[in-house]
Amino acid sequence: MPVSTPEGYKALERGTYELAKAAGDAILGIEVWNEYHNSAFAGPFASNPELFAQLHRSIYKGLKSAGTGAHTIGFDEDAWGYFETEMIQKTLDVLGDEKAMDAVSLHPYALEGGAVENNGRVDGFVDGTLSSLAEHGYSTDIPLYITEFGYSDSLLNFDYEKRAARIIRAIAYFSAKYPNLAAFCNYNLFDYADIWSSGSISEGTFGLVEAYDAAGTEIPHLAKPLYTAFAYWNNLAAQNTFVGYVDGIDSKKEAGYIFKDRNGESYMLLANLEENDKNIGVKLGVDSVIVSDIYGNEKKLYGVDGVFSFRLNKDRVTYVRGNFDKAEKTQAEIFTDKTEFNIPKGGSTKVLLTAPKSFNGKFECE
Question: What is the pTM of this model?
Answer without folding.
Answer: 0.89
